[in-house]
């Protein structure tokens, strides 16, 4: 049975990829994809996605936020012009998609113009949002701008539980209203959620089941499920990390084509630094928003030079980490946090016998 589920999941992935760039996309998008495939015949593909941290401002203060330690910090945000330049450089490197991340990206007035810019350049754009600002005017503007997809966070189908985890009363209601507007305008919309330790411990996993049922009821395009990551507010969150057994429990949902998991198998590759690059609101480059380790500053050094350095290092660490989330891998945690790295139990697929022993003893 697990073999069959794995086979189904990679088939689904391959089909989704070819549809993504060829179904209902511009000629320019199709050409960028073909150009990337041709280039891959002679050199490595490079990152597919450029993630832009638009701001550290946000209305919520979610318990699980990977940007938690930075939220509200007073940084000098990259300008719209600088962000456009990054989009152009990543496109030259072969990237096909731009992902606008936060904080809450819609708190910036130039987020929608940037989506329109990426669209004109033939790149697919994704917006991560808590949904609070998705009113009539903005959803229409997003449609006009040619947005490819919205990823909207819903932590639980129960309004009180969602608002509690987001520490903002009333945000569930606004997010649901936003989803309804997106669906009415036929904008691709994915509910982004995570499998919480508390929920997975329950026989029914009612939060997760509830979110999936809610997504179907609202008519979104699917539900994406992440596992908790040992970073941000949960940098010391060993008690929130799932064990292998708990992760496998969540994997039963894969038999539903409506559900996608970040890690369909234990050794599914982490995309950080290899298939995606992340630039923080103030221009620091790292492999993904969950990795607080800076490889360079795009205001001081060209993006491609930093990306190359990062690629080589990430390839090395990810091989050792068995493909899994590198924020749970002891050697990488030491690189990020130094010798006092908060201890997190490595996953069984991670090969580091000596460090594993040290970490386990220290807990
Ligand atoms: S909405 Fe997103 S950025 Fe804002 S606190 Fe929650 S997880 Fe963090
Ligand atoms: S390090 Fe990899 S697996 Fe972990 S959050 Fe980032 S992209 Fe995902």
TrEMBL record:
InterPro entries: 4Fe4S-binding_SPASM_dom (IPR023885), Aldolase_TIM (IPR013785), Radical_SAM_PqqE_MftC-like (IPR050377), rSAM (IPR007197), rSAM_sf (IPR058240). Coiled coil: none annotated. Residues 44-266 form the Radical SAM core domain. GO terms for biological process: heme biosynthetic process. Keywords: Iron, Iron-sulfur, Metal-binding, S-adenosyl-L-methionine. GO terms for molecular function: catalytic activity; iron-sulfur cluster binding; metal ion binding. PROSITE patterns: RADICAL_SAM (PS51918). This is Radical SAM core domain-containing protein. It comes from candidate division TA06 bacterium DG_24.
């Amino acid at each position: 049975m697990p073999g069959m589920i794995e086979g189904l999941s990679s088939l689904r992935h391959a089909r989704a990829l070819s549809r993504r760039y060829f179904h209902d996309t511009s000629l320019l998008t199709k050409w960028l994809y073909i150009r990337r495939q041709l280039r891959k015949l002679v050199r490595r593909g490079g990152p597919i996605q450029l993630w832009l941290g638009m701001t550290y401002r946000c209305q919520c203060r979610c318990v699980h936020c990977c940007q938690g330690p930075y939220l509200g910090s007073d940084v000098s945000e990259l300008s719209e012009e600088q962000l456009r330049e990054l989009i152009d450089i990543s496109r030259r490197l072969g990237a096909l998609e731009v992902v606008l991340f936060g904080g809450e990206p819609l708190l910036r007035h130039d987020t929608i113009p940037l989506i329109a810019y990426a669209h004109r350049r033939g790149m697919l754009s994704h917006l991560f949002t808590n949904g609070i600002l998705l009113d009539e005017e903005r959803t229409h503007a997003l449609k006009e701008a040619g947005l490819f997809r919205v990823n909207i966070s819903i932590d639980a189908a129960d309004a009180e539980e969602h608002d509690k985890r987001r520490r903002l009363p009333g945000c569930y209601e606004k997010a649901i209203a936003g989803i309804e507007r997106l669906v009415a305008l036929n904008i691709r919309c994915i509910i982004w959620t995570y499998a919480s330790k508390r929920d997975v411990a329950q026989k029914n996993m009612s939060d997760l089941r509830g979110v999936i049922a809610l997504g179907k009821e609202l008519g979104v395009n699917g539900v994406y499920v992440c596992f908790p990551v040992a970073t941000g507010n949960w940098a010391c969150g060993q008690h929130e990390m799932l064990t292998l057994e708990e992760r496998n429990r969540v994997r039963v949902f894969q038999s539903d084509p409506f559900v996608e998991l970040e890690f369909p198998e234990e050794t599914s590759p982490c995309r950080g630094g290899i298939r995606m690059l992340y630039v923080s609101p103030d221009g620091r480059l790292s492999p993904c928003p969950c990795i607080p380790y800076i490889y360079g500053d795009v205001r001081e050094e060209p993006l491609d030079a930093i990306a190359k350095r990062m690629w080589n290092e990430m390839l090395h660490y990810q091989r050792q980490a068995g493909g899994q989330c590198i924020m749970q891998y002891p050697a990488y945690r030491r690189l990020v946090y130094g010798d006092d790295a908060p201890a997190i139990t490595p996953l069984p697929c991670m090969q580091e016998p000596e460090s594993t022993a040290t970490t386990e003893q220290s807990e």
